[in-house]
Amino acid sequence: MINRVVLVGRITKDVDHRVTTSGASVVSFTLAVNRNFTSASGEREADFINCVTWRASADFMKNYVKKGNLLAVDGRMQTRNYEDNDGRTVYITEVVADSVQLLESRSSNQSDNSGQYRNKYEANQSNDAQDELYESTKNLIADDDLPF
């Protein structure tokens, strides 16, 4: 059986970080993923996909990911259920992210309005490696090149 999901989209709001009673970090977030086509009225539509990630990826997201950031998510679909206060069974389908990558972030210098983005961020990269990667790739992608 195969259960694999790969998404690229923008986070719709700042992450919801929690810590379980056993001390594990967990982050819930919603990713807006554009569809490849437009509606009959010519507007681009998006799907809003609920996601969750745990431990190191959750800590990374808590520290570095903000509303509007472009993320790549690799994980699996999961459906769970619970009984609400009225006795009804509620089903939740979400992506459990094994890997989350920040594909862009504005330069830490907010006065840079050139539209250049920092291309990367994985939880285990050092700041020096991130700065070196930024310098080597900062002119590759401009706002106008992005499909959304």
TrEMBL record:
It comes from the Bacteria. Keywords: DNA damage, DNA recombination, DNA repair, DNA replication, DNA-binding. A motif (Important for interaction with partner proteins) lies at residues 143-148. GO terms for molecular function: single-stranded DNA binding. One of its GO terms (biological process) is DNA replication. One of its GO terms (cellular component) is nucleoid. CDD domains: SSB_OBF (cd04496). Homotetramer. Plays an important role in DNA replication, recombination and repair. Binds to ssDNA and to an array of partner proteins to recruit them to their sites of action during DNA metabolism. HAMAP family: SSB. This is Single-stranded DNA-binding protein.
